[in-house]
Amino acid sequence: MRPQRIALAVIGWLSLVPAAAQTTNIDDFKDGADQAKVHRASGFVCPLFIGHFERDAYGERAPMLGSDFCAYSARDGVYGTITLTPLRAPYDPKTALQQEFTEQEGIGGKLVAERTMQIGGGATPISVYSRTYETAALETLHYRIIFSGGTIGTWAVEASVEFGTPRDDQNMHDFLDAVYTEALVHIAKLERPQGPVIPPVNQVAPVPLAGPAKPR
User: Fold this and answer.
1) How many helices (H) and strands (E) does the chain have?
2) What is the DSSP string of 141-168?
3) Fewest beta carbons within 10 Å, which of 49, 126, 182, 211?
């Protein structure tokens, strides 16, 4: 790829990165150990660090839905967001995340993966749905965003990660695994799992990489 095309592709990716989240309505959270923030209503704990990610904002996301969030960032433009919403009706992740899907498709995002995972084990495993879009691509790095959601206890737990593949695949997996492990332990009140609850990256069937994206 020529330098000019690389620059244009990167600019296209950067234009998709959202403005930095801001802490709002901190009354929904209380202080926990090691600078963690504990969500008062659900008991979910947002630690200061999740692997290479550092929490940089938390608070209210959608007042009409009662949703709250914790936002994280890592190096090289990798972002993670956790959203907690009380259940007031049956939860359908595709419906709940439709606005995000529509936004990605509206800016040219390409659907590259979709799956449903069963986590938690036991007689009533918890179903977590995920969908991944590719937003820009270079010859060796593809920029993607994964959305995921499931119900745990009386809460809908959603997590999204913006990352570059293959460079950030492990960080993406570790973030999702930490989020749903935390939800199992502090919302569902289950014993902490001995291993990862989200299948490791190398156990997921790979999705063929598309060719370099055309510059916008």
Assistant:
1) 4, 11
2) -EEEEEEEEEEETTEEEEEEEEEEETTT
3) 211
pLDDT bin (cut points 50, 70, 90) of residue 141 is very high
DSSP-derived 3-state class of residue 79: strand
What range does the domain containing 59 cover?
A: 3-19+31-189
196 found inside a domain? no
Q: Is the preceding peptide bond at 166 cis, omega within 30 degrees of 0?
A: yes
Q: Specify the CATH number for the domain of residue 97.
A: 3.40.1000
pLDDT value at residue 18: 43
Q: What is the band of 39 on the pLDDT scale with cuts at 50, 70, 90?
A: very high
Predicted TM-score (pTM) above 0.85: no
Identify whether 116 is part of a domain: yes
Least confident stretch, 48-57, 120-129, 175-184, 196-205 = 196-205
Total domain count, the chain: 1
Which residue has 């490791």 as its token pair?
200
